[in-house]
Amino acid sequence: MTKDLTVRVETEKDYRTVENITREAFWNVYRPGCLEHYVLHRFRSREDFIPQLSLVLEKDDEIIGHIMYAKAEITLSNGEKMPIMTFGPFSISPQHQGKGYGAYLLNSSMEKAKLLGAEALAITGDINLYGKFGFETAKKKGVIYKEYPDADFFLIKELKQGVLDNVRGSYTDPKGYFVNETDADEFDKLFPPKQKLKLLTQLG
Hints:
Layout: E1 5-9, H1 15-26, H2 36-43, E2 55-59, E3 62-76, E4 81-92, H3 101-115, E5 120-124, H4 127-130, E6 136-137, E7 143-145, E8 154-158, E9 169-171, H5 181-188
Parallel strand pairs: 7-9
Antiparallel strand pairs: 1-2, 2-3, 3-4, 3-9, 5-8, 6-8
């Protein structure tokens, strides 16, 4: 698989292609339509955005996937801040899903994050998926999702072994993940029209 795959840093000329892939990957998955392509668009101008870890996956010189990383932190029980990273949106073009490309991009990106000094990653996601990549339910490691302390969907992974030993604290998503839905709808008008559908599988 790796011979025809390349992971590289996103460039400005990739922005619209990447945003469209993100839109296609998330459309009607968690809500009617999606916000993720607008989240990505806005995040690029934030200080907690990590441009070296905004990575595209190319297959035969065509972009088929993207992952974005951001600076985050755990607020420790003593009030101190422990710097970590988070990632997302994480997208593979729908026509290329289920073929191992997402795993390849995720593993490659985590290796690059470690090289850039990340010692731990925290995300919200499905343990049945991300457990395969070394993530654990964060509350078992002493770190809670502040908004939902009992959340099983809040996951964490050590990139430096033992860095979370004896850590007790809470986590809140970086503010860049929260966007105005009206602004997102206006941004979405820049893309080809797609039908928003309310599906039983969506959240809420």
